[in-house]
Amino acid sequence: MIQSRRALRGLASYEPGRPIEEVQRELGLTDVLKLASNENALGPSPKAVAAVREALGGVHRYPDSHGTVLRQKLAGRLGVTPEQVVLGNGSDELITLALRAYVEPGDEVVVADPTFLIYRLAGQVAGAAVRSVPLTQFRYDLPAMRRAITRRTRMVFVANPDNPTGTYVTAREVAAFLNGLSDDVLVVFDEAYVELADVPEFPQTIPLVQAGRAVLVTRTFSKAYGLSGLRIGYGIAPAPIAAALQQVREPFNVNLLAQAAAAAALDDDAHLEATRAYVRAGRQALLETVEALGWRAVPSATNFVLVEVGAAARATAQALLRQGIIVREMTAWRLDGFLRITIGTPEEMARLTAALRAIVYR
Predict the structure, then answer these.
(1) Contacts of residue 211, Cβ cutoff 8 Å, sequence gap at least 6
(2) Which of 100, 111, 361, 343 has its CA nearest to residue 245?
(3) Are residues 208 and 80 in contact, defined by beta-carbon separation less than 8 angstroms?
(4) Any alpha helices (H) in 2-116, and if so which ranges?
């Protein structure tokens, strides 16, 4: 039997967080709480929901393959041209499109370790040699990543803020990293959590696009905008780079409902601010809970917190699961002893806190 190239490489597939429905079936529970996948606990904007309902009658038609309305709206908000905006099936697809457009077998990509797992997996699928640079104190070590770049390097991935740590690199660090860097190297700034990064000296990457630097900025509607289930993201890049991604993009990659919801979500600033407020409050409450339990949390600029539990991490995750609370155990990232916990609603966080106290103090 013919074997796939992936099997021959021994490529491990990405394991997403467990769905609520799966846990309900497995454990016979009806009230399952998911705090594992960094979703927006407030849900989508009511304007986005209304737009989806209105668009339902047209689902027998193919969507606008160019996403004209949404790209124009994004371009206007960001201060770029529509030709500099590329839509994707989540921001994950923008990552794979960039690799498809710019990386050939034998080329190199540089990633941090640990970071978002898709960079390594997608790079391996593209046939690239992946050079990993360890984090320092849970933060990207951009000077070390710069030193890891060789003549074969075609792409560098920078998740900012990072997943799974929640940390970020500053504008000063990014400027130093880019200073003198060859335009033969495409730097991908993955900003999936940018709307939640209310932190000092966060880099402004859109001016890099406007200046024509060799960068691709990827963002998503999955996190702050609460549209994870519709899978829609976008990339911003200088026109030649955006055109290269468009050339390798599948037609109709973003569905009609996703386009309608995203365009409407951009018009709901109140919902976005409510999301930011609940994340700030929930994150602080979770940090206080973690400290009271004697654990350590990594400072986060996102809607999740990486928590060092120690040897009991896996058992703690399983104990929570039996109570219908899903959190992310971090062995897949080689972060043994850690849990990643998404910020939920106040009611959800109160339930989590009570469950953790019961587990620790039983």
Answers:
(1) none
(2) 100
(3) no
(4) 5-9, 20-27, 46-55, 68-78, 91-102
pTM for this one? 0.95
Residue 5: per-residue pLDDT:
60
Q: What is the pLDDT of residues 176-187, one digit of tens each?
A: 999 999 999 999
What's the order of all strands across the beta sheet hosting 108-113? 85-88, 233-236, 215-220, 186-190, 153-159, 108-113, 129-134
Q: 18 pLDDT band (50/70/90 cuts)?
A: confident
CA–CA distance, 40 with 5 (Å, rounded to integer) = 36
Q: What are phi and psi of 298, to 5 degrees?
A: -80, 130
How many angstroms separate the most distant Cα atoms in the chain? 60
Q: Which two tokens stand for residue 237?
A: 């890049």
Q: How confident is the model at residue 112 (pLDDT cuts 50, 70, 90)?
A: very high
C-alpha distances in angstroms, 157 versus 130, 142, 151, 234? Answer: 11, 11, 17, 16
* Closest by Cα among 230, 175, 228, 179 to 205: 175
Residue spans of the domains in the chain: they are: 5-44+269-360, 47-265
CATH says 5-44+269-360 is which class?
alpha beta
Q: Give tens-digit pLDDT for 308-335.
A: 999 999 999 999 999 999 999 999 999 9
* Residue 211: closest CA among 181, 237, 179, 184: 237
Task: Report the top-level CATH class of 47-265.
Answer: alpha beta
The CA distances from residue 153 to 8, 92, 147, 191, 243, in Å, are 24, 21, 11, 22, 21
